[in-house]
Amino acid sequence: MFYPEPLIEGVLQRRYQRFLADIDVPDEGTVVAHVPNTGSLLGCLMPGQRARLSRSSDPARRCKFTVEQLQVGEVWVGVNTQRANALVGEALSQGWISRLADYPQRRPEVPYGRQKSRIDWLLQAPGSADCFVEVKSVTTSLGGLGRGIFPDAPSQRALKHLEELIDCVHQGSRGVLVFCVQRADIVEVCPADEIDPAYGAKLRHALAQGVEALAFNTHLSATEIRLNGQLLPIYCP
């Protein structure tokens, strides 16, 4: 997936009110940028680190800039969760995810479940059970172990999505959880038990009930972001 225009580089000063950040941009000064991520961005927010921003051409938009990537050590990390859904959608349309390649019909943001959630992707094929795909963006690394963790903050919403996927499986459909790791230095994903033990327990239960889990890391540059490769099976000791 190519960005509409190459990203602009700046330096992070601070994040505040969760969705805003001050970024020093050459020739622009300090700008207020939107941070499209509801999580804590644990380990990814350090004043003085390099940031990459996209610029909106919409004159009515309050924040003209959006934080797309942050540099953590030598690694660029994608922090825009909307890119994760779009990346997986692009991979589905290209048949790139082999376990999900046999569904010619793909619909985004479809209402489903008892709790009136919206699934990221509903995949359908004649004669096959529906396949419900939920995408989660992973940004946090566990030390230098090459292990990504999710979530980076307690998340009732993520718990609800697991419950909905379990219900899908019980009703005869496929329920698939795709972890889109927006960094290239991760080889496996595990639940963040110390941050959200309830999610870890629910994920293990979901896998035991037949929910499938896949994980992919990504390649990032100032011009594009793309799925890079499938990771090891989800690590749930």
Quaternary state reads single chain
Alpha carbon gap, first and last residue: 34 Å
Strands ordered across the widest β-sheet: 7-8-9-12-14-15
Q: Judging by the overall fold, what is the CATH architecture of the largest domain? A: 3-Layer(aba) Sandwich
Highest CATH level, the class of the largest domain = Alpha Beta
Low-confidence stretches: none
Q: Which structural class is indicated by helix and strand composition?
A: alpha+beta
- Morphology: globular
Write the layout of secondary structure elements.
Layout: E1 8-16, E2 20-25, E3 29-34, E4 50-55, E5 65-72, E6 75-78, H1 81-93, E7 105-112, E8 117-124, E9 131-138, E10 140-141, E11 147-150, H2 156-170, E12 174-181, E13 188-191, H3 197-208, E14 212-220, E15 225-230
Parallel strand pairs: 3-5, 9-12, 11-13, 12-14
Antiparallel strand pairs: 1-2, 1-4, 2-3, 4-5, 5-6, 7-8, 8-9, 10-11, 14-15
Write out key terms for the chains shown.
alpha+beta, five-stranded mixed β-barrel, 3 helices, single chain, six-stranded mixed beta sheet, OB fold (Dihydrolipoamide Acetyltransferase, E2P), Trna Endonuclease, Chain: A, domain 1
Entry summary:
With 237 residues, this protein is an alpha+beta fold. It contains 3 helices and 15 strands.
Overview of the structural elements:
The protein has 2 domains: 8-78, Beta Barrel (OB fold (Dihydrolipoamide Acetyltransferase, E2P)); 81-230, Trna Endonuclease, Chain: A, domain 1. The protein contains 3 helices and 15 strands. A 6-stranded mixed beta sheet has the order 7-8-9-12-14-15. The model has no long low-confidence stretch (mean pLDDT 93). The longest helix is centred in the C-terminal third of the chain and has 15 residues, at 156-170. The protein is α+β, with helices and mostly antiparallel strands.
